[in-house]
Specification:
The protein has no helices and eight strands. The chain is mainly beta.
Length: 93
């Protein structure tokens, strides 16, 4: 009998770190619907770079990268509600 398939690991790929949401709110990948996304998979970022916006109580909060590296994964969809501490991006240093 064949062995059952292993479940896909959760979290960022090996060697990557997560950028997490510091607040509860709604995730936006760009400043407006007409604007380009702050970051995309494959982009290199520096510490302090704005990577997204989380709207909380009608206030748009810019979320800045705490690490420098390459965006390897975007873990949420545009307009999706996010929780405090929820992983938003995977970054490979």
């Amino acid at each position: 009998a064949a062995a059952p398939a292993a479940a896909a690991p959760s979290g960022p790929p090996a060697g990557a770190v997560e950028i997490r949401s510091p607040i509860v709110g709604t995730f936006y990948k760009a400043a407006s619907p007409e604007s380009p996304a702050f970051v995309s998979v494959g982009d290199r970022i520096k510490t302090g770079a704005v990577v997204c916006i989380v709207e909380a109580m009608k206030v748009m909060n810019e979320i800045q990268a705490e690490v420098a590296g390459e965006i390897v994964e975007i873990l949420v969809e545009n307009g999706q509600p996010v929780e405090y501490g929820q992983p938003l991006f995977g970054v490979k240093r």
